[in-house]
Amino acid sequence: MENVLRPLIVVGGSVVLTLAVGWLVDRMLRTADSRRPDTPLWGLLRRCRIPLQLVLCTAMLRATYRSAKILPDHEAGLGQILTLVLIATSAWLIVRIATAIVDSTYSRYASTNGTRDPARVRRVRTQVTLIQRVVTAIVAVIAVSAMLLTFPAMRTVGASLLASAGILGIVAGVAAQSTLGNLFAGFQIAFGDMVRLGDTVVVDGEWGVVEEITLTFLAVRTWDERRITMPVSYFTGKPFENWSRGGIQMTGTVFFHLDHSAPVVLMRERMQDILRDCAAWDGRDWSLAVTDTTPSTIQVRAVVTAKDADDIWTVRCAVREQMIAWLYENHPYALPRIATAPAELPRPAEIPKPSEISHPDADHPDTGRG
Q1: Angle formed by the axes of helices 75-113 and 118-149, to 10°?
Q2: Are the beta carbons of 258 and 300 closer than 8 angstroms?
Q3: Residue 299 neighbours by CB under 8 Å, 6+ apart
Q4: Which residue has the higher pLDDT, 128 or 305?
Q5: Shortest CA distance to 290 belongs to which of 321, 334, 339?
Q6: What is the model's pTM?
Q7: Which CATH architecture group holds 250-334?
Q8: In what order do the strands lie in the sheet with 227-231?
Q9: Residue 214 — pLDDT band, cuts 50, 70, 90?
Q10: Could you say which architecture CATH assigns to the domain 185-242?
Q11: What is each CA distance from 19 to 23, 29, 46, in whole angstroms?
């Protein structure tokens, strides 16, 4: 009877104590979060409740399973399993805590500086995202290594691996040159402020917004909802356009090819009315001027401004569409004309005969002679 009750008491007691500690910690974090609403750390740490309970339960079972005689015929295997679970849950708990701290720091920074310097907030967000990925990768590698070293055979192999680490490092560096290049390029992008999450960029002729940045690749969401995935080394080795660099405000142009008789002065008045009714125009600046001329047309350039790339596209389309419609309805003569009348050929009597065409040397008989 004792062989049955002791394992049940140990397992049940571990589970009950784990649930009680988890409930108490969650209650304390909830109280701290309600008292300090300006600090999101306590609310974020509540996500760590499940991994904390698993760590506590596994640790207690790992420490008492021998004395409790739980599965005495399989003590070695049970101890190995509990050790592996303890390492895995500890790594999970560490990642959750680090993520909560980093997210809390970023949230406070974004709430304080989000309205004053949005570009810097995007830069910090990019760095925070990569820091989280680096921390997760490091913890995962350490956890896997620790789990492998719990096996006696792997400890013997580990000594040999450490002895040949130099050769393996050289081989790995040559074999994974591209991967390591992308890895270091990811750090350069994150801390060199080359491109940030939310930036509007043009790569390979495609316009889009940076949606995701990892240690190895970067994803750009185009205007038509496509995703372009590119290695981060592309942005460190090739030129690209970053429309959000130094601010997201933009200036756009609209070109009109019109007849020489186009009413430019009236077009300026009409453009002012169009912009006044366009919600996407930010009101900073606008202009309209004749920038070029050809024998048949003139080139009129309209300049508009907007707060970002999306609005500048809307303003340009509105100006182009409404200006052309206004010209067509009120000044159709200003639209470019194409000459379609047939050419008038000379009459047969007016065409000179070959015998009537005088030779250039006819008046100089000695030209060309010795």
Answers
A1: 170
A2: yes
A3: 255, 256, 257, 290, 291, 292, 293
A4: 305
A5: 334
A6: 0.49
A7: 2-Layer Sandwich (3.30)
A8: 227-231, 217-222, 206-213, 200-203, 241-242
A9: confident
A10: Roll (2.30)
A11: 6, 15, 14
